[in-house]
Amino acid sequence: MASNVTVGNATINGYNPANDTNVATFLSVVVVAWSCAFIAACLRFYTRAILVRSFGKDDVFMVMAVLFGIGGFVCWIICCKNGYGRRQRYVPRDELSIVLEAQFYESVLEASFAFGFLKISIALSLLRLNRGGRWYKRILWTLIGFTCFYTLFAFITFLTFCRPISGQWERTPGTKCYNKELYRDFGLFNAACNITTDVMFATLPVPLIWSLQLQRRTRIYLIAILSGGYFAVALGVAKAVFIIAFVHERDGTFRPWAPFFGALQLDMGIIAACAPTLRPLLGSLLKLSDHGNYKDANYYRAGKALDRIPKSGSEKRGYLRQNTASGVFVEGLTSPDPEKWAALNREKTSFTATVHNGGSVKDDASGEKPSIDEDAITHIPPDPDFKGIVKTTEFKVEK
């Protein structure tokens, strides 16, 4: 029987361990996952900035998460080019040094800041729902503060592992590093924090979304998309398992499972966070619109309109009238007379509404001239798709 024993770098029976490589598998999976995440993010930015024009703070933080994710992805490519997927004892020392340096920057850019900005973006997006009451807001702001804490903690642990920092990829005389067990424990703490916030962000909005006055199909779609966060939780658990094995791993370049699952966790998190914002873009395709003649109801833009309504008196109630064709909210219809409001809703012609401190409404049909500046006048154009139904959003303004 032929021997299968390998001595040094010798080839026996046509097998050479120096030629073992997993790089194609790791690289293809990460490239596909990151491409999906990047496309989802770009579609989100287009939908928010161009389609519905409600680009907010949560989108700004998502941009930052994507930018840092790009940096981590570049580091991953460098690692694959110089040693990932190959047995460590056959990786030249200079290439191994490049791998370790790229791995360090990947940890800083991706495992700390990209995850941190992603979680803050998700929290700010959930704050847009604004239907959970005071406790809901307090929980989200607490999660934002907690995310900031463990993100900075992770960043500090990466910086202080070795002194000088370059000792992490090139050991020189005088280099001091704390032991691998402590480094593993810090990594486990960071992974546990990411898993905890993933579970919270995937679970917290479910009862609120189910209570929204939307089609059941739409609510199921949003809940299913947010449940994608549980896939990120599963990937985070897998990452934690391999962080535990980090201390005893002797072939980290051949099986870089911890950074591999970490990269996939970030990609899945971006996809899960961006998918709900694509409803205005995909609504007609997936039949998610609330009515065939209505575009997606932009509740965020309605909230922006409320911010510009003059606040006088202790309290006001009224409506934001939405054009059925354009989906644009009309600002400033406060406390109208019920009969007059009903008449305005039945009209198929354009009219102009104004708001002033008294909270009354004046229109073209009355023949009265506006008593305030023209900047406060909102003109409602004729709606070619008007069929006797006007979508309104009730609001309440408190002093």
UniProtKB/TrEMBL annotation:
Family as reported in the entry's similarity comment: Belongs to the SAT4 family.
Compartment list: Membrane
Protein's organism: Cercophora newfieldiana
Keyword NAD: no
InterPro entries for the chain: Rhodopsin_dom_fungi (IPR049326), SAT4-like (IPR052337)
Protein name per UniProt: Rhodopsin domain-containing protein
Pfam families: Fung_rhodopsin
Region listing for Disordered, in residue ranges: 353-384
